Here is the input.
Amino acid sequence: MRAELSAGRTTGASVDPREPSPSGVRVLGSLGRVEAFRLGRHPIVLAGVVGAVVLLVAQTRGSVARWWVADVHLGTALLFVGVAVLYAGYLATARAVRDGLADLYESFPTSATKRIGAHLVALMAPVVASAAFVVIAVGWLDAQGAIGSPRVSVLAGGLALVALLGALGVALGRWAPGPWAGLFAATLIALVEVDVVVPSFDGPVRLGRALDWVLPWHQPFVSGEFPGPIASFPPATAHLVELVGLAALTSLAALASRAMGVRRLFATATAACLAAGAVGWAGWSETRPIPVGRLDSLVAAAIHPATHERCQTRAGVSYCAYPAYLPWVRLWAAPVDGVLSRLPRRPARRLVVRQVVDSSFLCSPSLGAAAAASCTGGTPSGPRGRQVARLASRLTAFQAALSTDAALVPGSARPPVYVGLNWGSGATLGPAELNLALDVAYWAVHLPTTGQVVHAQGGTQQVSCLPVGQAREAIAVWLAASATPATRAALRAEVSAGQIGSVPYGNGRSSVATFAASSTLDTVGSLETTGRATLLAAAMTALPERRVEAVLAAHWSTWTNWRTSDKSLATALGLRLPPAPPTPATVPPAAAGSGQVIQVSGPPPSPVCH
Amino acid sequence: MGPVSAERSGAGSSPGTAARGDATVAGDRPGVRVEGLRRRYGSTVALDGVDLSLMRGVTGLLGPNGAGKTTLLSILATVASPDAGRLSVLGFDPEDSAERIEIRRRLGYLPQELGYHRHFKVAEFLDYVAILKEIVDPGRRRAEVARVLAATDLGPVAGRRMRALSGGMRRRVGIAQALLGKPQLLVLDEPTAGLDPEQRLRFRELLSELPDHPVVVLSTHQADDVAAVCSEVVVLLAGRVRFAGTPEQLAGLAAGRVWVAEARQTGAEVVWRSGDGRWRHVGERPPAGAELVSPTVEDGYLRLAGEAAVAGSAGSAEGSDTWRSRRGRQDR
Here is the structure.
């Protein structure tokens, strides 16, 4: 009977005059193109791209980009695209089953595996779109003045992230085409990533360094606190290998079939083993703590800035910065020159603007548990823990000495003006410039500059001195506000925002209201100005600039003397001295009269500046 | 397999079979051969030893709901596999994976329940199916899509999204996709369901104009569709082939047994009221005052179905004998 049944193959109805069947690759290519076109213009994917743009802008606005941070932010932004592609890819792959066309599709000569392959090929569309997004973002950030260079491995990791999540969507669509699997997976990944990536989001996911490498994207948020890019940290190449390996494993899972032949099964198993091995190696590499030697050199760069920085002289001012930050010298020069150009007499001593590192980078879990423990006051264990603890204490001592240790800047009798590792852009340019301009103006009128806050024992902080009622503080604030258009606007915003603090001074019976900069990016160089001086300076900005300059130039030495009061300055300028703003917390009269020293806001009272 | 199916298995021993084969595809071999096909879904027997040969031309598959039509068609379309039996489709064995693909390259299939991609436009969907049918050359694909759009009168809605189409239009899209690639085997499961009368006529015309005379098998509940377009008809009842022959032969089963009367009479095998308000009786004995009329395909089918119901209630073995004896009388 078999022979009879087969006889029709060569005769009668089954004689086939058709043209030869196209190769599987051509079918795959044609189908892949159609699916790519559909996926690339899918509303969910387009929404993901919009989300990525919004996230990137949100992450990078407010500070001039540093590429060793911004490239990681780019990958984080691509998470949006990846999650969107996951869901869109899932919807596309599950389309036949969801729409009741599974039987029809089964009757076509194009196999399910080939159709899945086409969906995987179609992921090229969002990957290419993501690449275009990356290229545009790189150009945009460069145009914004980003310093350094993006790491190709980090950028490629972002694209691999999109491919991985897309492949996951295809695999889900193949094996769990029900209505909710894709949505559930996309939501789960989005929530976990938001929890892990956004430091301020205090969600339930606490994987720790041992496991969080498994997540598609991990953002080492500490890297912005380093004095420059660090070779092999974060281990971007290993992460790229991990993502590619996971994408390969997921694709193999999507392409797997219950009816695989022995050869295909062997090839699939071999590829899966290779991919799993690559992922395993990548995970091992990513979980290695940063070597103590590398930490040691980081700390050395932080606490010996003079030996690690390069200096440039512009308009008689010496700017010293870590090599990667040298392009920022021109940004710093704007407020510095703005202040110095308004001084009646240029000080004889040279102004040094020096970049220093914030102390917090050792606290990041990205640097390992030992570093984190030393930062939180815990007891680090093991030789590595003790080594890291020693580094942390050296860093803390350096920071405490910032305001008083003239030796940090050889040849200088006074501490220099410090700047940190961040610089404002857009809305935060004004506060950043005002902060630096204030430091320079304080330096010009012989007030303590950066490092005004002295770190005392036990974590409390003390303001080194307060120029309460002194004309020179109002002059310094006016000089800073007049430095650039942005500083003028920033001072107005600061006054109208009314972010008033309270600092005890003298014998502790009194406290003075202070203004703090509204949005400083660094603790480095952050100053608090007394309330009345700030309000007087704001009033001075309403006067013609030349008139103020003439009054100041007439008796500059007097105005900068600590004994000259702000009332005298107001009278000379024809202004009414503004009343001091009330302090947020007032001293109870009974307590004030009892002879006890009252600490209004916690720290010990500060002396009046002389 | 029942005796009638054995007759239709291509052995050529029965007069009916010989007449059909000679009349339709003389000298040709069957496009589809089925032997002892069985298929169960749990305890339900969908196909119970089906033997069948399908030649070029249009074969109609008639049967009540649950008779196994859809199961049989899905097996012919290589979507489902039989539990037992042999099958040759266009000379290929669907059990062999490579040959199954060869069948699918020559197949046009319209499932009974056909969903739709909501966001696809009609032309997009047909283009997509064309690729799945391995028509990868863009120019040829465009021409093929245009051809089936014209054949099914869907040209004006080619740019409309599937979700915006009426049920009948979607059915026509289903027919259009089945026609893509000029298949040698067309398996259409209730293709006229949801079509308006005009479109049914157009569909009949379409089938008669198919190029290269493919093997077409369609299931339907519309006996007049069978009479109009099918050169062959197969009646499937309870998973068994109860009749295979021409529509005229099926109608002939009721010859001399169809009467029309003003009132309903008892004693007939099947009675129903026709559109003109008169009662149509199919049975051995004429009702009082009834008028003998020429039988239709529907009469023949209903008589067959009525007999099977009686036979089924009397026991399957006896039922088969009863059917055989009556069929024997008919053939004589």
About this structure: The longest strand of chain A covers residues 510-516. The longest helix of chain A spans residues 67-93. Residues 306 and 410 of chain A are 8 Å apart (CA to CA). Confidence is low (pLDDT under 50) at residues 1-17, 451-460, 586-601 of chain A.
